[in-house]
Design brief:
Order of helices and strands: EEHEHEHEHEHHEHEEEEHH
Distance between the termini: 21 Å
CATH class: Alpha Beta
CATH architecture: 3-Layer(aba) Sandwich
Structural class: alpha/beta
Number of helices: 9
Helix content: 25-40%
Mean pLDDT: 91
CATH superfamily: Vaccinia Virus protein VP39
Radius of gyration: 17 Å
Number of strands: 11
CATH topology: Rossmann fold
Largest sheet: 9 strands, mixed
Amino acid sequence: MCENSSLRCDYLPGCMYKIWQDAKEFCFTTDAVFLGNFPHVVNRAKVLELGCGTGAISMLLEHRGAAKVTAVDCNPNITKLLRRSVAENGLDAKFSVVDGDIRNYKQLFQPESMDLVAANPPYRNSGNVRQIGTAACHEVTSTLEDFFRAAAFTVRYRGRFALVQLPERFAESMQLAFKYGLQPKRLQWVHSSIDKPAWIFLMEMVKGGSYGMDVLPPLIMYNKDGSYTEQVQKFYEAEATQK
């Protein structure tokens, strides 16, 4: 804790990096942990996270081997916290934190300059609006298509775009993928328990990829007794070995 009562320093599951967050903003959740562990990371990968928030996904991808990570967000309060997290984890040489609107992607980034683009876009384009983390949860500053458009511009040919979204926006995501030349290659549905409908999906696309998609076994979060399943526990195992 610190002088700002809403500011807190947490630890990122699986790597134990410090991550500074503000309770008045949107803090990372399990969907960011899942996405950070989902896509293939090539050797010496250059990675971009669109709408990075406090940078949980970016830091997980760095921990998994990305050589260079660029994280962009339009909220200066959030990017300030990410820069603090980067500095305190000694990641300055690998990270570039950009203040900017992803809709201005042509001014912010070079075309086809990234091996992997990741995004946890706002889920909602309708319904009740959250009072905390509004822009992170609702399409008030950018749409789902804005993320696809920026990803298609920045990722190299045969590079990858990975995102997490709600099942209700799966058809829309597939349509946008085809529109922007991003071929869906891997898909995983995430369920809170084995008897519950999926609440999010993880999808990895390849720019200019051929037809054919692997549908992975579903990711189940909780056992019947409320404990994490073995699938989820693996994302936390590094905590015990990092120290």
